[in-house]
Structure formats: C-alpha cells, structure tokens
Amino acid sequence: MTETAPQRRKPADPQGAPSPDLKIIETRVFRGPNVWSYEPAIHLVVDLGSLEDWPSDTIDGFTERLLADLPRLDQHHCSRGRRGGFIERLQEGTWLGHIAEHVALQLQQEAGHDMRRGKTRQVKGIPGRYNIIYAYADEAVGLAAGELAVRFVNHLVQPDPDFDFTTELERFIKQAERTAFGPSTQAIVDEATSRDIPWIRLNKASLVQLGQGVHAKRIRATMTSETGSIAVDVASDKDLTTRLLASAGLPVPRSDSVRTVEDAVSVANKIGYPVVCKPLDGNHGRGVCLNLADADAVREAFPIAQDQSRRGWVIVENFVTGRDYRCLIINGRMEAIAERVPAHVVGDGVHTVAELVEITNADPRRGVGHEKILTRITVNAAARELVRSQGFELDDVPPEDVMVKLTLTGNMSTGGISIDRTYEAHPENVEIAEEAARMIGLDIAGIDFICPDITQPVRETGGAICEVNAAPGFRMHTNPTIGEPQYIAKPVVDMLFPPGATSRIPIVAVTGTNGKTTTSRMISHVFKGMGRKVGMTSTDGVVIDERLVIRSDASGPKSARMVLQNPRVDFAVFEVARGGILREGLGYERNDVAVVLNIQPDHLGLRGVDTLEQLADVKAVLVEAVPRTGFAVLNADDPLVRKMRRKCSGQVVWFSMAEAGSEVREYIEGHCRRGGRAVVLERSELGDMIIMKHGRRSMQLAWTHLLPATFGGRAMMNVQNVMAAAAAAFAAGAPLHDIRQGLRTFSTSYYLSPGRLNEIEVDGRHVIVDYCHNAPAMRMLGDFVDRIGESLGASSELGRPSRIGVIATAGDRRDDDMRELGEVAAQHFDQLIVREDTRLRGRKRGESAELIIEGVRAAIANGARCRSVELVLEELDAVRHALGRSNRGDLVVLCVDQHQSVLAELESVSHLAQAGARSGDEGGDPDFVRPDEEGDQEQQ
C-alpha cells in the first residue's frame, strides 16, 4: 500500500516503438472518505508494462495528438498550481498512468461533471504499477471515464483502427446523460449540498433521500415526501381539477369529459368553437390538440388525445387565447413565472424551415428529453401539418423575421423556450395561482395560465387556468432561455428543512483491532437508556432500536448507509472494520465522534497493508472524517493511536489506563488543563475508579468492580472498552448520570453482548464464550483467564481447576500470526483444542489449525503452561470435545465464530444435565462420552 509520487527520471534509451500496454489491474469505488481522499473517488490500479520506459516526451507527437482531441486539458493545473501546469508536465515527460488520470477527469468534464481532484502514485516495489485516484460525481460515469481514458491513451501510443475517439466520446456523453439527474432533481440536490444536508440516491432514477434517519425527507424530481397522494390524484384528473377550481370562483375554461367521438362533438357544439381536446390524465402536453374550429377537427383530434389517456377519458374545453404562462407555487407561495413559447423557428430569408430546425437543434443547450436545459425540436406529422397551415412547407424559405410554429403547446419537452416573467405578474394573478395550488392541495404545483398579458388582472383581460400540474419541471425557471434564472430549489429545501431544522443524526464510529463490537454495544446501550432510537452496525449484524434486522458481518459501508436510511433511527453507532474502509471507504460523509481503540498486528499482509503504520493510516480515516465540531476519542496508551491526534479537525478526548505520574498521564493532565477532555483510571486500595475529566473538573464515573462487564474488574480489556465508551458518550452529549447508569446495566450476557465474553454454567463447569481470534486479543483474554482462574481455584473444593481452551483464527492471517496465537494461548491454558472456521479464506482444510498447533507445541517445548493440544476441526465438535475433557469446577473458554449455534449447544447440554439431576443421577459426568484415543466423538 505504500506509494510514492512518480518523479521525472531520465528513462533508459528505449528501443523500437512503444506498445499499447497500459491496462487496468484492479478497480475500486470509494463511496465516502477513504485512505486516498476525503471525498468519493475511483481507484484504478494500472500496469504500464513496457510503457514504464516511455514517458510522454519520448513518444513522437503524443502530446499534440492528445491536445487535438481534448484541448481543454490545457486548463488543468496539475502539481504546478496554475493553468497549463499539466501541459508543462507533458512536455517535460510524465508517465502514462498520470496522463490517464487527467484524461478521466477531463472526460467527466466533457459530460458536464466538473471533477478536478486526482492523484497518481507509484506502487512501491512493483515497477510500472500505479494507483490512479480521481473524483467522480456519478459512479457509472466515473468508471466509464477510467476505462475510456486507458483505451484512449493506448490509442495515442499506437493507433487502433477500430477505435474512433469522437464516436467513443459521444457514446460516453450519452451514457452520462442517461444516468444523470434531471435539471429539477439536480437543482434541489445542489441546494441541499450547499446547506450541508446529506443526500443518498435511492435508485438509478430521481428518487433521492435528503437528510438522515428520523430527519430524512425524500424527493422524486419535484415531488416530495410532503406531497399528498390525494393532491396528485386530483391534479392528474383534469376534469375534477377544473370543477374544484370553478367552485372556488377561479377562472377556468368551460369543459366536460367524454369517452366517445360523438360525445366530444356534442360537448364542443355546446360550449362553442374553437375548442381543445386533451387527455384527462396526460402530462408534458402529450395528446393536447388546440384551436379545433369545427366538428371534423374534433373527430380528428379525439383519438390523438384518447391515446395518451390512461383511463380513456378526454377533456373537451373552450379554447382560451393568449400567451402561455407557467406559475410555480411552492409551499403556498408563488416563486417563479415563465412564459412558454412553443417550438418555432424564425425565418432569415436564406434557409428553409427544415434547415432552420437543424440550426436551432445544433444549440448545445438542446438535448433529448430532459437531459439538457432545452429539448431538441422533433419534426413529426403534426409539425408538418402545422407548418402547412401557416402557408409553408418544410422545404420553403420563410421571409426574414417571420415566426413559423412547429407545435401549438409551449411545453419545454416539445422544444419550446421560456422567458422569465417572475417580477412582472400582477398581484391579483399571483393570488389566483396561489389559491389554485391550495385548492388542489399540492406543496409544489405548476399552474398553467393562458391569458393575453400576465401583467394585467386576468379577470379583466380574459383568460383562465388551463391546468394544475403535480411535479412540475424546474428547468424553465432555473435555466430560462431569456431572462434571469430563479433559484427555486431554495424554497423547496426551506419547506423540507425549515431554517434551524436538523438534517443529520449523530454518528459515533468505532474502530480498532480488538474491542470494537463490545464498545459499540456499550455506547448503544447508554443512548438506548436515554430513550434514543439507536441504529447500530457490527460484525454480528444491523440492529435497529434493539432489533436485529440483518444477521451478518455488517461492519462495512453498505450497512452504515442502511442505518442512515431507516426513518426510525435518531442516533447511529457504527463498528467500522479495516476491510470496509479499504474496499469502499466510509459509508457516510463524516462522523461526529470517532473512537480508535488500538492498533495491533492483525489483518496484516492483506490488501497492501503490511505494517502497523499502514494499518494505522487506514483506521485514521475515521479521525480524518471528524468535523471541526466533532470529537476523536483516542487511546493515549497506544503510540500509533496517539499520533492520530494530528489528523483530527475537531477536539481530542483521551482515554488511558496509565498510572498516575506516568508520562502519558502527565500529557493528559496538560491536555485537560487547556480545557480538554479525558477518561482515566485512578487506582487505590479500594479498587480502580474511572474518572472523567473536562478542563479542571474531575468527575467520578464508577468503580470498575461494580460494572458487570468487567467481571469484578478482572476483565481488563472490558475496563478499557468501558472507558472508551464513556468517553464517546460524553463527547456525544450524554449526561454523566446517564453514562453511569448505562454502563452499570450493561453486562456481557448473551442478550446484550452475544459472542463477547459470555459466561454460562454448564453442569458445574464455568464456561466463557468469546470471539478472540488474534494474538493481542489472546494476551488480554489470557490475563482475564489467569485472574478468574485464580479466583475459581481459591473458592473451589475440588482442588486446582483445569483451564481448557478452544481456539482458532481466520484463514487470511499470516502464518507467523497464527503461530503466535498458539504460543500466547499455551501460556494460559492447561489444555488446548484447535478448531477451524467454516470459511477457510483461501487456505486448505486443516492448514490454519496446524499452524496454530505449531505455535502451541513450540511454547510447550519452552516450558509453557499447556500440557496437551488436540485438533478438532468442526466448531461444535470442538465444543463438545472440550466439555468432554472437563470436570466440574473447570474453566472452559470457547473462542468461537458461530456463537449462536454454540450457545444453543451449551443450553441444550445444561438442560440435559438438569434433567439428569432431577432423575437421581449422581457422580461422574453422565451427559458426556469422552472421545477415545483416535478422536472419534459422540454425544448421548
């Protein structure tokens, strides 16, 4: 994982011609803060192959060809910090991986995504291999940009006859347009981002969540979670809409709904010509036929309108003449008005109508559908007929300044343009539009006015409300063809999140090598006791308000996002594992409190993390994700964790078990004198007291021996976890008495902390179930075993109890780590049984267990406590074997992976033993059959 920035070196004199060897070895998408960037990023691992010896200045014409196809690369600053800096690097000579990074960024800019952040770093120890990291706005577009960039660079090295960059670029841009938000959704998302409101895209279309947890709101285009479904149904029924507006005394056209052609003609004759035929529940102006002058025109228009009606009903209404205005009403107030001009061309005396359409469509602001701020004009049969009705054919040249209409409706979706009229409308017309939105009940409504002039009262000049639209488009207001843009996303976000409203829930993230799950559970328990609806992720699953909703290893970013989407959650506690950070980054933008427990040798040799320092850099991502208003809770006793204070933008809260007067404690005292916070351990003859410090104040939290999770103060690893949890809760705003009450009521029972130091009596045997799976954790567990073993020995009437352990580790650990686990375990147990996880993680069956046994035997040879070691691969078989080897009064420690099935087995054995006792069985161990010398085992 160690990288170095590629430096310019004098290349070896390359021979022959360069080959297009650049290829992508690995692709990863970071969806949150990660080891490379604070922002989401694409990570490509590329191999240059022979091109490692061919920097840009050694390839004839490379820079010229590159700039000919992507001229805007001359705007890139690169490391020079000024425009043209990247061009200088190209001319001096830079490596093609670095060039691919800039091309990927520029391709996204060509698609309208203003991405500028990127870096390229050489992978240490592997010549020609580089890490390319660059920003993205849309995941699919970012990935496609990287793939196209590599192909394009290879094409520049050696032209590929099957590769046409212009075609590929057009295909790429169209893909970006298909996946991009529409103008309305993008405007709202941009406004939310500017206010620091987090958002999550919930599907590939326009469904977006704004805010987190209990504060979350949803939008789909301009429909919000506050939009009433009844209001939408009413607005989609144009006949009902007209009748409701008429009942309120608002100006509407005379109309009726029909299902047959003859009924349509009858209604038209009744209300008088000209009339309009339109679908009862249509949208975007589809199927609307205007200015129908007689019965024949109605008969011709009726099937067109009915074809766009989902229920088959057609509205026939009198044709209101005038200009077409769209009034946008948000939360009961008029926020924008646009005059909509139907798709048209203006003659210049030179070009034909068809040529003028092509010239108009060449405007870069025009695209297909809603992908751009204007829509291309489509010449269909209706357009040809309309042009003909104005005295022209498509091949005719209209006189200069003569307007030729191509549609009758002013919808933007059919190629129309918009003129901003927001500040010109007469107050009476504004009042009418606002009243119409209230009558229908829409929080966001588009009121379509037809009137001669919006600046004059419509009741005096004539005109009417022709339609009320749910989910109206914003682009005619945000990007008018003529006039000033209106920032209408602001009132939408104001409506969803009024000034002062909260959009985020507090997030506490916990990481470290050992103790993450227990600490996360302790923090959750404290806030649960305060009445909070806590969403927690851990290696056991996702818990929402004390309910386990998903049972799996949920310590990654996907699980975190799941919690943030849950509408019941008002407080989040995330266990964050190394693997998730390396795979996808964090699943959220920032955490209010980051807790780092320890950095110890585990998971080394995976994903490029080979040293403790590199592991610390990965874990430090949580600290880097703390805002200025947040806190980092750090273990002052761990030197690598202590160094993370430099990466924290907020405040640091220390926790330490160091003795008073030690160097670490002196440092903490100085920190507190400057107003800082800390949690420390004060030792005395009466016991160990946890003290919380804030500035010069010292507050007693609890005696460690009175906290159930510490087993009377003997489980020092849980003493440390308690201190970390207390510090995190204090930083997150919990009062002292609530922290104390939460920790006093938290125990390591299976119901509160499944699989973590659970204690159970099984037919006179003292059984501990834990997840210990690495050497550092085994040292702490061994210390606890020593302490509890001495206590059991002092109180036992059966003599010195035996200590029997079942141990294992994950198959993706290093060989030496596995041996070390065996060596450490041998120091604390009399008998060891080595099992193996179901998931082998790339190892052969039995391979991991044999390595642990090697470590145990080496320790035995050096005088360790252990007397024997056995191999029983299956977990439940190993548990039964351990119980069979034990006697009443013995201590049996089971380090297991599937704690649910193990606890069920122990409960079963315990019930059998109780049933046997009630039957009068005495002496021996009736519930166990000891394995024979070959290791065959069987349970009665």
Question: Could you provide a short overview of the structure?
Answer:
This protein has 940 residues and is an alpha/beta fold.
- Mean pLDDT over the full residue set: 90
pLDDT below 50 for ≥5 consecutive residues: which ranges?
A: 1-5, 8-12, 920-940
Secondary structure: number of strands: 39
User: Which range best describes the helical content: under 10%, 10-25%, 25-40%, 40-55%, 55-70% or over 70%?
Assistant: 25-40%
Taken from the alpha-carbon principal axes, the silhouette is elongated
Spatial sequence of strands, sheet with the most strands: 26-25-24-27-23-28-29-30-31-32-33
Please give the radius of gyration in angstroms. Answer: 36 Å
**What portion of the residues fall into strands of 2 or more residues?**
15-25%
**Strand-pairing-aware structural class:** alpha/beta
Q: Tell me the major beta sheet.
A: 11 strands, mixed
User: Ends: how far apart?
Assistant: 53 Å
Q: Please tally the helical runs, counting DSSP H or I stretches of 4 or more residues.
A: 30
Domain ATP-grasp: 242-497
Function: Catalyzes the ATP-dependent polymerization of arginine and aspartate to multi-L-arginyl-poly-L-aspartic acid (cyanophycin; a water-insoluble reserve polymer).
Protein name: Cyanophycin synthetase
Family: In the C-terminal section; belongs to the MurCDEF family.
Structure characterization notes:
This protein has 940 residues and is of the alpha/beta class. Helices cover 35% and strands 21% of the residues. It contains 30 helices and 39 strands. The chain has an eleven-stranded mixed beta sheet, sandwiched between helices. It has a six-stranded mixed beta sheet with strand order 34-35-39-36-37-38, sandwiched between helices. A hairpin with a 2-residue loop joins strand 25 (541-544) and strand 26 (547-551). Helix 26 (775-795) packs parallel to helix 27 (815-826). Residues 1-5, 8-12 and 920-940 have low confidence and may be disordered. Residues 242-497 form the ATP-grasp domain. Catalyzes the ATP-dependent polymerization of arginine and aspartate to multi-L-arginyl-poly-L-aspartic acid (cyanophycin; a water-insoluble reserve polymer). Residues 1-21, 913-940 are annotated as: Disordered. Homodimer.
